[in-house]
UniProtKB/TrEMBL annotation:
InterPro entries: FAM3, ILEI/PANDER_dom, ILEI_FAM3C. Its main location: secreted. It comes from the Eukaryota. PANTHER family: UNCHARACTERIZED FAM3. It is found in: Secreted. Pfam families: ILEI. Keywords: Disulfide bond, Lectin, Secreted, Signal. It comes from Ameca splendens. Residues 103-190 form the ILEI/PANDER domain. Belongs to the FAM3 family. This is Protein fam3a.
Length: 231
């Protein structure tokens, strides 16, 4: 049967629209799209492994941070075997791989305005001298961000002054921090309120994950950058 003029035009138009839709779907993706190569065979092209892989954000966060925020992840040490990690803006500041971890408190100081790393230090809180920690914390400048991750024992050598200095940085858990507790904390010099970035896991025989140590803690988030005082 031959198609009349108007009917033939409608059929051609429908075919053109359908072909255009398939071509656009193939070019711009989507689970239901067909590749140009398979348009005429009707077979579906499976997504590649890279397309199926979840998108990765800075420091492994599940979502990107807003503008003017710093992405971070802290991981405390596991027992006295696996060292802690401090990641900021997708850069590892402290880790066993960098060979800059140690028993006790692992601390990274960061410029709160620029996000620039200022210094990393470790302080042995089992057999070390707490005076080194005090000399490190006392002269901190306003706006300095302080990242802390424990490893093994972070509390035995802490005294009243050192605990008070951490409280002034925004900590609420340090006053009760005890032998072999796991602790991760982000504070700042001059903070007006208590820091929302802090976790503590108590060393308890009834709940310890490892023999003599609680489980490792992991914390991540986005820290607002401090406005510059200049200009």
């Amino acid at each position: 049967m031959r198609l009349t003029g108007p009917l033939r035009g409608v059929v051609v138009l429908l075919l053109l629209v359908g072909f255009t839709w398939l071509l656009v779907s193939a070019l711009f993706g989507g689970e239901s799209s067909l590749s140009v190569r398979n348009i005429f065979t009707g077979t579906r092209e499976e997504p590649t492994q890279s397309e199926m892989r979840p998108r990765r954000y800075k420091c492994g966060l599940s979502a990107p941070c807003p503008p003017k925020h710093l992405a971070f992840r802290l991981v405390s040490g596991a027992a006295n075997v696996i060292g802690p990690k401090i990641c900021l803006e997708d850069k590892m500041l402290v880790s066993s791989v960098k060979n800059n971890v140690g028993r006790g408190l692992n601390i990274a100081l960061v410029n709160g305005v620029t996000g620039e790393l200022l210094e990393t230090r470790t302080f042995d809180m089992w057999a070390g001298d707490v005076s080194h920690l005090l000399k490190f914390l006392r002269p901190l400048h306003e706006g300095t961000l302080v990242f802390v991750a424990s490893f093994d024992d972070a509390a035995t050598k802490l005294n009243d002054e050192s605990r008070r200095l951490f409280e002034e940085l925004g900590s609420t858990a340090v006053k009760e921090l005890a032998f072999r507790d796991s602790w991760v904390f982000v504070g700042a010099k001059g903070i007006e309120n208590k820091s929302p970035f802090e976790q503590r896991m108590k060393n308890s025989k009834s709940s310890n994950k490892y023999e003599g140590w609680p489980e490792s803690l992991e914390m991540d988030g986005c820290i607002p950058m401090r406005p510059s005082l200049q200009g």
